[in-house]
Predict the structure.
Amino acid sequence: LTGDRPTGRLHLGHYVGSLKRRVEMQNSGEYDEINILIADDQALTDNADNPGKIRENIINVVLDYLSVGIDPSKSTICVQSALPALHALTFYYLNLVTTARLSRNPTVKAEIQMRGFADEGLPAGFFTYPVSQAADITAFNANVVPVGEDQLPMLEQCKEIVHKFNSVYGETLTEPQIILPSNKACLRLPGIDGKAKMSKSLGNCIYLAEEPEDIKKKVMSMFTDPNHLRVEDPGKVEGNPVFIYLDAFCRDEYFAEFWNDYSCLDELKAHYQRGGLGDVKVKKFLNNVMQEELRPIRERRKEWENHLPDVLDILKEGSKVAKETAAKTLEDVRHSMSCLLYTSDAADE
Ligand code: TRP
């Protein structure tokens, strides 16, 4: 299982950090079940005043999934708010974590600062969303969770909840493993401004559905090595976003196609480091690479945009299947906690 908050269109950071891996996993045939959750309720935890934005972006996110190659016949795409069992699980799990432990979650801590909650007051729902995420993961008995590095603290917290639950109520929940991107450049893709993370709120993203002209504009405006002032100066490739993007996306074939002065990225890097290679040339090459990578994604998206009723059906079908899966886990959980008597089924009998 993995998931995304529907707060906007998905961008390159999502793609290299998780989406690409999901498609590989889906097509490897090694997993008997793949679930992808659109976490609209989690998105509400810091957007309580803007449910319209979330509603609108649910469909954007499904379109992004379909356009990168998520195949609904192999992966189940579902919406969090359609799975009431997740809320019940969250309520039970909340008793298995302390507020002190929640306060130490580094991702939540950083987000509290970023969203200004430190001054304005912290919504309790936001503070506890790692617990709701543990419900998402365990509801599907997920053994692997492919996500970006920023989600590591969520997975750690989920594992703790699983241990606690299993030790108090007996073996019930599956312990998940995180799967991080194998390519270092993909762990955390910087923004085009060189800031540590590509993020909508920082306004430094290249979106998956971006038009060719906008991709070009963004690539050509990218932050590079600030000390590489003249062409003849030696340049730095470490921490240089242009080279980090090349690490993430460049394949040797692209040199044959667009820049046959070099045969591979290492040769290009060596020249840049020696000096004598200007940023504009490297950016032009990166633009060619990005255009090649994003064209098929954009085209597939446009096709699906012409079949929106089908997209909605995919989501409805997936949510129906997922609802059953989550309900079954809730039943197991209540059984382990000896609360089964109080499920609606039992009450009906
Ligand atoms: N917190 C994740 C993010 O912001 C989204 C998410 C919600 C998720 N539930 C999940 C990720 C379960 C993995 C598994 O990107």
